[in-house]
Amino acid sequence: MAGLLRRWRPLPALGARRRSCGPRHGGPGRTRRLLLSQLFQPLNLQVGGSEAGWEGRAGEPLCRSQKLMLQGGLIHPASPGCYYYLPPAVRAMEKLIKVMDEEMQAVGGQKLNMPSLSSAELWQASGRWERMGPELFRLADRHGKGYCLGPTHEEAVTELVAAHTNLSYKQLPLRLYQVTRKFRDEPKPRFGLLRSREFYMKDMYTFDASEEAARQTYDLVCGAYCSLFDRLGLPFVKVRAATGSIGGTMSHEFQLPADIGEDRLVLCPEGHFAANVETLNGEQTSCPTCREKLTQTKGIEVGHTFYLGTKYSSVSNAVFLSPENKPQLAEMGCYGLGVTRILAASIEVLSTEDSIRWPSLIAPYQLCFIPPKRGSKEEEEGTALLERAYDDLAEALPHLARDSVLDDRTQLTIGKRLKDANKLGYPYVVIAGKRVCEDPPVFEVWNQNAGAGGHPHVHEAVPG
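RESULT FIELD:
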């Protein structure tokens, strides 16, 4: 960032006229300045450490991500387990989905969209209508036909593939995925987006010609998940997991270790073994590979993969034509990523108690520009310099223009606005402070994510 600032040229005749912190109206292709005062991001700095007045039972504690997302105007409670996603959260979610799209399409994924309403007949045929119990949101239309709001889409996607009876082995593997709202009637929704009743999920469903091919697909998609979390800079672990109500013969979870997590994990210190305690028989205390003592931790599940075999394809008769032109059941897998849970879990594990820290790839905005306080001796010259910096950056790097905010609340001190910028988690903050009137003028550039323990690094940059 400091390097970018050094490329800016000195400004001519700064004192000729005063430029206010307002939106710039230019010709075609000119980017309008995005002003902080115009963003719909209502701050709720009075939110404390319990859920009273927000959701759940009064007096229950809020976790870190829930508190910060409420304070920072990212989410607003609608009803227990349901939230309004406010514009900054939507921006972060869209960026996260873009990264997911890249990883899924890199392994041959094709994106589609399936209905949220799924017929009761489909779920009854698979046995999950009864097995899911009260977690399934059920409803009936005016004709008495039963439906559920899908928490997952194994039945629906298998019916879709089964409807195409001329599917050939030459068209396999088939890897279909979507990013949609999901619904689960949580008995006790809590911790904001970490355990909610309505949420966004990326779910992929794969169809292969053989068990061997399906297991290769399983490894491939798991590798894509590892790549995703590596790109986000999240400290994940892949652990052996139970198959639960979805079923299948093999399953793994992707977990972010965190004290607030509801899953208990055992890990080999040498990395040879990792599992959810649900999968252990008795008290397993040492690694089966190296015999080192296993350590225990809690985790937040952010992804889950399943090798399903023919569990669902046999119910819906999802077949393909083999090289001998005979129908054969497809071998399936399913793979989920909790989109909104990853947003919250990222904040949970990366942030300080009072300041959001985002994975840099998905921060709602990358840059915050802070001009001098109104009425200060630096106001005229510093404002002109900073606005010129904003505009030059927008022209040189248009993608950053859409990722930059100008904090035009100049009635507030620089310190107050910097504190807000730190709390809201902008990765970079550029300040026109007292040294902006020096010769040459100097900006402060704060790298919010670079310091140890959440403390930002401060650099100086000279335009020109």
